[in-house]
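Fold Annotation — chain and its backbone

Encoding — discrete vocabulary of local shapes
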Amino acid sequence: MTDSGHPQPTRPVEIETPRAGERLRVIRQSGSEPRTTSRDALKAASIENGDELIPEDLEVALASAEPAAARERAVRLLGHRDRSVTELRDRLGRDGYPCGVIADAIETLADWGYLDDRRFAESFARTKRAAGWGRARIAAGLARAGVDDDLVAVTLDTVVPETDELLRATERLTRLSAPGTPAERDRLTRRLVRKGYSYEVARRAIDSLGEPPETP
């Protein structure tokens, strides 16, 4: 109803898909600011492109559908693989959910035990350690996932302690090839550094396997 008591006019709903293959949707109605939402929320609210709705009714319908849709989406994402809080927040944001809806979903998932940065960090570190990553590369990966610096440090000390780094680098070298010429030793050094081992550890690991043969 308007201030004068007359019913508000309905307006056509225009739904845009900015990026093909993604869930983000942009909703436009004449006289109203565009707003984003998710394909899943629109489906739950039974809103389709071209529907005639009063703007306030549109907002009420979306506000009612978004919380459950965001939680369900988050559960599916976490069922596929473990994620950090930051990763999940970014993914729901790309899906088009408002910040408040995302914050509530994250709080709920954490309360349910589905979301835990400590568990994520330890799982990530163990998986990458098994793949041969060094401390530096694991730390960089956790930082990109938005894990807190203090938690990164604790995780590294727990899962990939510095005392273990030289042994793992040496074991990795023996699986690759024995260092031969100086050029080969340099190549293997660069390979270990790319895996996240420090330059010092890489050189010590190579030196522990013996000196290169003398050039005639």
Summary: Residues 11-114 form a domain with the Arc Repressor Mutant, subunit A fold (CATH 1.10.10).
